[in-house]
Amino acid sequence: MNYKELLQPVRIGNWHLRTRIAMAPMTRSFADDTTGIVGEDVVAYYKRRAQDGIGLIITEGITPSPRGKGTFGVPGLFTKEQANGWRKVTDAVHEEGGTIIAQLWHVGRLTHPDLTGGLAPQAPSVVQAEGLVHRLRKPFALPEAMTTQEIKEAVQQYAQAAKYADEAGFDGVELHGAHGYLIDQFAWEVTNRRTDSYGERTGRLRFMKEVLAAVGAAIGVDRVIVRFSELKDDQPSYRWQDPEAEIEAYLKVFREEGLRVLHPSTNTFNQPLAENLTLHQLIRKRWDGNIIGVVGLTPSSAEDAIRAGIIDVAAFGKPLLANPDFVSRLRNDQPFIPYESKIHLKELL
Ligand SMILES: Cc1cc2nc3c(=O)[nH]c(=O)nc-3n(C[C@H](O)[C@H](O)[C@H](O)COP(=O)(O)O)c2cc1C
Questions:
Q1: Helix H or strand E segment including 290
Q2: The CATH number of domain 10-344 is 3.60.15.10
Q3: Cα–ligand 1 centroid distance for 341 (angstroms)
Q4: Taking the model in full, what pTM does it have?
Q5: What pLDDT was estimated at residue 347?
Q6: Using a 6 Å cutoff on CB, does residue 30 contact ligand 1?
Q7: Residue 275: CA atoms inside 13 Å, Cβ hemisphere, count?
Q8: Residue-wise pLDDT tens digits, 247-297
Q9: Are 281 and 264 spatial neighbours (Cβ–Cβ below 8 Å)?
Q10: Is 339 a catalytic residue?
Q11: Considering only CA atoms, which of 23, 4, 5, 17 is closest in space to residue 97?
Q12: What is the rounded CA–CA span in Å between residue 6 and residue 108?
């Protein structure tokens, strides 16, 4: 097959990308667990994808705060030393002509004091998650409800992390507002029981809006992407009652904050959500900015979706773990190695 669209350069947001292929954000847990600093293995891992010709690399989730860490080995962007570690990654990617943005990820309630310096997880409300913390294998701890002051501090931590990302040479940041983590815990009626201005139907997106505004003010809104979703990692069966109203509420916030690039996440790219349309199609109907498609895409389904005008860029996750030379294989019409977690999660290939 001829992947003419995927291999085309494109301008989205503030970036000129070499191809329309993005690397989806993927936690790898290879940072130093105590300092949250990434090393040479992480440099080589991202450099290899840049060498291959990936248009946009979105990093693994990086925590903006010691309390935002959800598993072992998650890197941070809340100290100067962490930013210095990332500088080596961004330099290596830029040397290869790539573009790289940092995903900012605060897990909120989905963690345990063993990972957060002995402190209880932070969340909009005291609602404990069911399930076990990734790799720690202990139940998610009972979170503390954030005070208004703590909410303001968290917003500032995101803005500071964006400044560190800028100092570290990143081309921008992606806010992880999806999958049931802190920003999404504010957005979700199950985890947000607040009755103040951050709660109820009208206030649930306020936290996200304030983070977007603060991060936009710190580095420029044209260098910010946002990820959002119905999908919750700790409750995959959850469904929006009225998908179109939910989408509309998000888009209103994104328009007000001047965003240009969205990265909506879902269970499966081609699964209809409402009116027989998929999440990305429902957004495309209402959004004239850029859209990154993701989840279960293959090169041919991605090519079709770009050609149909549904998305502008296609993100691949697991295929890029199994195939560090994904773009070369695509260009040369070579077969892809199927992803196997037991093999491909173990090392930073
Ligand atoms: C090992 C692994 C780690 C992931 N970590 C993150 C993460 O840190 N942040 C995030 O937003 N999504 C994360 N995801 C979800 C991916 O970004 C992507 O949405 C998902 O893998 C579906 O795309 P795919 O079918 O191309 O793999 C992760 C996925 C995998 C497989």
A1: strand 290-293
A2: no
A3: 12
A4: 0.98
A5: 87
A6: no
A7: 11
A8: 999 999 999 999 999 999 999 999 999 999 999 999 999 999 999 999 999
A9: no
A10: no
A11: 17
A12: 35
